[in-house]
From TrEMBL, chain B:
Alphabetical UniProt keywords: Acetylation, Cytoplasm, Exosome, Nucleus, RNA-binding, rRNA processing
Coiled coil regions in record: none
Name assigned to this protein: Exosome complex component RRP43
Exoribonuclease phosphorolytic domain residues: 27-162, 189-252
């Protein structure tokens, strides 16, 4: 599989916040059916996808594919935080993957955190989506992850670094789908008012446009080479 | 028909804007709270949301605070979904759902700042309280998140901590069991869960059957001032911003009802 590398610096004009430069590499691992590495600034996550494959008896679902997500942190053993993140990722992927086309099979998504420099969950989401694309699984829509941080003044910072996340009053992560820019997944840390949440959501939806454009360019570049 | 085609059965009800158990789409099940039932725990509460029964016990212990936050105590929530409560849970190490709910409760405590960890500190750098909050589900009939947060809130309101003094010479702590103080609870977070059906319909407080048929769930945690402590939407069908806003408004109304219930119960046990 040829690997396609892309460097893009995206700026979202208007509210003065921009996403960090991100890049993606697909098809870099030989064993998994699909693999992708997604880098957002210094945060990088490697995703490997196996499926649709043989499923063990108890996990078999008669009408759809059984999706399993494994998230491995950079150091240490996976703990409760990883489990809850796995659940978020799994249910997000289940909503887009057309599992009904592959009943009684298992799709396994393994994510390895290579480096965590802020916005980890959205990087995982983006890596997962690129991995699903690389594996060629049938999807109803694409999705992307965007993290917003609200600092002490109420200003929105998109794609925050670790430092910005720690200093922020609230950090919100959204998974936006590509079909109608609706919210697939939302999770918040810290408290915020309802208006602030709606503003963050609007900013995330705007940023999602640039990310989806990046997906397009990335896939186009990859297939035009081969 | 219900067992053979559950989704069709439900759709027929949803078309008439009601549910098989007779509730409206926006109606909660009967909520009952029982405080102080466990005498061996420092604080306890039993919450019943329809058939879902959750009990929370809080035990307070003494420990040395962490090196980097010398003036902060600890709150350790743990949610258990034993095989007693439902056939879907097996005995053994906690499954994914139990861990995810535990993490959710820990996030709610952290986000809402309901108890300032500085209040739990007794002597800077030497002694602090650790509150072990054990939430056990006795009967799982859906909406475990709401019931757990409610049980936790009620149990913490019930907690009475004995006063502790640190003896300077010996370095030992002296616990005075006769003199007890309640915890200062700053915020009262209340969770409201919704289930999404067929990408459009939102129903409040789903039962276990409804959760299985639903295509997604949303949980909103609000506090006293109408601020959002947590928006928890673990995947599932996509929602527009407007629908999310509807959920939030419903959650704020629910918060008022729950707060009234808690205040009533606390007042009823006050004369001891």
């Amino acid at each position: 599989m040829m690997a396609a590398k892309e460097e893009d610096k995206m700026a979202v004009a208007g509210d003065g916040c921009c996403l960090r430069p991100f890049s993606c590499e697909q098809g870099l691992l030989s064993r998994p059916d699909g693999s992708a590495a997604f880098l957002q600034g210094d945060t990088s996550v490697l995703a490997g996808l196996y499926g649709p494959a043989e499923v063990k008896g108890s996990k078999e679902l008669p009408d759809r594919a059984a999706l399993e997500v494994l998230l491995r942190p950079k150091v240490g053993l996976p703990g409760v935080v990883e489990r809850s993140r796995e659940q978020l990722l799994r249910q997000t992927c289940e909503a887009v993957v057309l599992g009904a086309l592959h009943p009684r099979t298992a799709i396994t998504l393994v994510l390895q955190v290579m480096n965590d420099a802020g916005s980890l969950l959205s990087c995982c989401l983006n890596a997962a989506c690129m991995g699903l694309l690389d594996a060629g699984l049938p999807l109803s829509s694409l999705f992307c992850g965007v993290t917003c941080a609200l600092d002490a003044n109420g200003a929105i910072v998109l794609d925050p670094t670790t430092r910005q996340e720690q200093e922020a009053r609230a950090v919100l992560t959204f998974a936006i789908d590509s079909a109608e820019r609706k919210v697939l997944m939302a999770t918040t840390k810290g408290s915020c008012s309802v208006e602030e949440m709606q503003q963050c959501l609007a900013a995330a939806q705007r940023a999602a446009d640039t990310i989806f454009q990046f997906y397009r360019d990335s896939v186009r570049r990859r297939y035009s080479k081969s | 028909f219900r067992t053979v085609e559950p989704l069709e059965y439900y759709r027929r009800f949803l078309k008439e804007n009601c549910r098989p158990d007779g509730r409206e789409l926006g109606e909660f099940r009967a909520t009952t709270v029982n405080i102080g039932s466990i005498t061996t725990a420092d604080g306890s509460a039993l919450v019943k949301l329809g058939n879902t029964t959750v009990i929370c016990g809080v035990k307070a212990e003494l420990a040395a605070p962490a090196a980097d936050s010398a003036n902060k105590g600890y709150i350790v929530p743990n949610v258990e979904l034993p095989s007693l409560c439902s056939t879907r849970f097996r005995s053994g190490p906690p499954g994914e759902e139990a861990q995810a709910v535990s993490q959710f409760i820990a996030d709610v405590i952290e986000n809402s700042q309901m108890i300032a960890k500085e209040d739990l500190c007794i002597a800077n750098g030497k002694l602090a309280w650790v509150l072990y909050c054990d939430i056990i589900c006795l009967d799982y009939d859906g909406n475990i998140l709401d019931a757990s947060t409610f049980a936790l809130l009620a149990a913490l309101k019930n907690v009475q901590l004995p006063s502790v003094t640190l003896n300077e010479e010996t370095g030992l702590s002296e616990v005075n069991l006769k003199q007890k103080n309640p915890l200062t609870i700053r915020k009262h977070p209340v969770a409201t869960s919704f289930a999404i059906f067929d990408d459009t319909l939102l129903i409040v407080d789903p039962t276990a059957e409804e959760e299985d048929l639903a295509t997604g769930t949303v949980t909103i945690v609000t506090d006293d001032e109408g601020r959002l402590c947590s928006v928890h939407k673990p995947g599932g069908s996509p929602l527009t911003g407007a629908k999310l806003q509807d959920c939030i408004t419903r959650a704020i109304t629910r918060h008022k009802e729950v707060k009234k219930l808690i205040d009533k119960v606390i007042k009823s046990i006050k004369p001891k």
